[in-house]
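Hi D.,

Good news: the full-assembly prediction came through. Inputs first.
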Amino acid sequence: MKGLLLMLPLLLLTAGCWDERQLKDAHLTFATGVDVPKEGKVDVTMAFPEAGTEMTPATTKQVLTGSGHTFRQSAASVDKKIGGGLDMSKLRVLMIGSETAKQDIYPLLDALYRNPSSPLNAKVVVTEGEASSYFQHEIKGEELFSRYYRQLIESGEDRSIIPLTNLQLVCSPLFDKGTDAMLPIIAYEENDQSAKIKGTALFHDRKMTGEISANETSALLMMMNKKQKELSFTLPAGEQDHMTVEVKKVKTKLKVDVAADQKVKTDIDMNVQISVLEYPPDNLDQEEKIKTLNETTEKELERLMGRTVRKLQEANCDAMGIGRRIIAKDPDQFEKMDWSNAYPESDINVKVNVEIIGNGIIL
Amino acid sequence: MKTRMIEPHQLFFIIVQTQIGIGILSLPFVVHEIAGKDGWLSILLAGLFVQIGTLVMVALAARFPDKTLYDYMPIVIGKWLSRLMIVLFTLFFFFTSIQVLSNFLIFTSIWVFPRTPPLVFAVITAGITVYLIRENIQVIARFYVLASFLLVGILMVFVFMVQYLNWYNILPVGSEGAKAILKGSGQALFSLSGFEFLLWLFPLTKAPVKTKWKIAAGASLFSTIIYTALALFSYAFFSDEELKIVPEPVIYMVKAVELTIIERIDLVFLSLWAVFAITSFMSYLYMAASGAAILVKASNHRSSVYTLAVLSIPAALLIKSPLDLDAYGGKINLASPVFLFAIPFVIWVVALLRKKKEETS
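Then the structure:
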C-alpha cells in the first residue's frame, strides 16, 4: 500500500508534458536545399510533404524558401510562412548547390550538428546548379521529392556508384587533416524530366574542388575496399566488343612509403574477382579466352584506376586517407611535410589482378 | 543487517552497476581532452590502479572477515579518528552521488528533454532511489542483477558501429606520451570508482576470501574493458579533431546509424543508459545513508535515506551548466584517490603494524 502511494505521484510526473511534440502540430520537412547566393547569405529551400492515404500517394505540398545570414535564421524565416512549427528532425536529404559547395560547407551544417534532435543519418548531396531548383523541376512519375532523392541516393550507394555517407559520416573527414571528404553529386536531366546520379564531388579543406564520374567512384570505392552490395563495370574487351562484369570480391592492399626526401609513394595492390554479366561473343569455357579476358580487364581497370587517382590528385582530395596512414605511422613526419602540397605531387601506383570466377548461366 | 548476506554474483553486479554509469557517455571525451587518441590507454591504466586498490582492500578486509570497514576502524585507528573517517566517507559518497545525479539531469536535459524542468527528473530519480535503497542490501543486489541484462543494449553500439570504424585514427599507439596517459588515467578513475564498496560488502558476501577477491577484481576488469572498448570505438569513429567538439561521443555516433525499424537508436540507448546512471546514484546514496545512520546511531538506515535523498535534490539542481559540473567533478576527482587508495592503504598498514586481526567466528 505504501509503495502504491509512492508510485501515484511518480506516474503523474512521468507523463512528461513539457517536451511533448505532437505530430499534428509539427510541419515536417523531409528534403531541404541550401544555397549561398552571395557571401554572408544563406537561402534555405524546404519541401513539405502531404501525407498520402490508401488511395492517393503522398505528395509534395509546399516548397518554401527563406533567406538569412545563417542556416538557422533562414529556417526561421521559412517557419514564419508555415502553419505549425517547423520540424527538421525527420530530414532525409540535405542538398547543397555545387557553387555553394565550392566554399567552406561546414558553417552550413553546424546548426544540424549542434541540435540533439537533428537527423545525423540524413543524406547529404551536392546538386549541379542551385539546390533550390531541384524542388522546382518536375520529376516525372514522382510526387514526393524527398522520397525520390533519398531512394536515388540509397540505390546508388547499394550499387557502389557513390560513396556511402550521411550527415555524420561526412563530418569526420571534414575535420580530419589526413582524410578528405566526398559527397554524391546529382544533376537534372531536362529531356527525361528526372534527376540522375552524376558521380562524386571531391572536397579538400571543406571545399569542393573537383568531381569524378560514377564509374570512377566505383573504381575509387574498390581501392578503398568499400564495395557495397553490388558493383559493376562495362569495359572494352578486344577490338570492338564490350563486356559488362560484376565485381564479386575486392581485396585491396594500400601501402604508403615515405622516402628520406619526404617523397610519398603509395602502392595499391588489388585482387579482384569478377563475374561476367554480358559478353555476346560467348565461349567463356575456353581457358585461353578467359586468360586473355583477364588480362584485358586488368589493363582496362588499371587505366580506370589511374584516371581516378589523377583526378583525385588534381582536386587535392585525399579521399583514401593516405595522409591518415602517414600520421598513423609517424605523426611528426606528417607535421613536417605540407600535405596539401605533398599529396598532389605524391606517387600513386595501382596494380590490378583480375580473376573471372563466374559467367552466369550460359557459357 | 549483518545477517543479510549476498551471493558472489550479486557482489559482481553491485560493483559493475556502480562503476558503469554516467561515464558511458562522457568518459571517452574526458580522457581524450587530456590524453588525446591514447585516452583508451589511460582507461586501461586506471583499470590497473583499480586492481591494485582492490588487492589492498582484500588484504585489509581479510584481516577482519566478519566486519565492515566502519566496524573495524575503531579497533585499528581508534574511536575518534574512525568517527572522523566515517564522516569523511559519508560526505564523499554523498557528494559523489550529487555529481552523478546532476550529471544525469544535465545530460537528459541537453539530449532529450530540453523543456522539462530538471526538478521533475530530480524528484523522479530521487523517488525511485528511495524506494529501492530503503530496503536491505539483498533487495538492492537482486535489482542490480536484474538490471544488468540491459548491458546487452550497450553492446549493440559495438555491433552497429563496427563497419564505420577507421582504426588508423588511433594509430600510432602511445604517441601522446606517458605523462598525458598517466594524467588521463586520473580522470578515468572516477568512472571506475565503485570497487571501494568491497570494504563494506566483503563480510556480507557468502564466499571464501579468494573467491571474493576474484569476483571483485573480475567486476572491475569487466567495467574497464567496457569503458576501454567504448573509448576505442569512439576514437576510431571520429577523427581526432572532430572529437574535440563532441562531448558525448558514444551517443553521437549511435545517432549516425539507422535501423529499418528504429530510426533514432540514440533515444533507445539513452533510456538504457539512464538505468545505469540511476543505479550508480543509488549505490552512492545508499553508502552515504548507511554511513550517516551509524553516525547518528540509528537502528536502521531508512530515515537517513529519506533525509539525504531530499537534500540531494536541491544540491544537484545547484549545478546548472556543464561548466559548473566540470568544476565540481574536478574537486571530486581530486578527492577520490584519497578515499579509494590512500585511506584503505593507510588503515591496512596500521593494522599490519599494530597486528590487529580477527578470526572467523
